[in-house]
Amino acid sequence: MTKLTLGTHPFLLGFEQLERLVERTAKTGNDGYPPYNIEQTSDRSYRITLAVAGFAEDDLAITVEDNQLVIRGRQSEDGGGRVFLHRGIAARQFQRSFVLADGVDVGEAVLENGLLHVDLSRKVPESVVQTISIRKVGK
Rounded to two decimals, what is the model's pTM? Predict the structure, then answer.
């Protein structure tokens, strides 16, 4: 007996990329830093909030690459003659990725009180009915 995977199930035509998408999501390499929340703000909108204390707007970059929202943070080195007796506040760079479904758009991003808020919205899909004509093959 042949094992059917999600992308090869006979009723799921055109979903071959879904398996690749799931694999790519599992390989994003997110290590838990920085912590984040995802909340649903309405029927068709979401908000991702990342805790980015110590990062300025210029230290953060937000891009969408191949249906993937990528948020990167890198603080500039400010030697400035500072001598730390204890350094417990992380100042490391990060990359956090989120796979977006088709039709999800990234809205505005706001940095407020050490939290980066990124708003997302999902478009209402148009209902499309298509009639397919049947061609008769002549003898």
Answer: 0.72
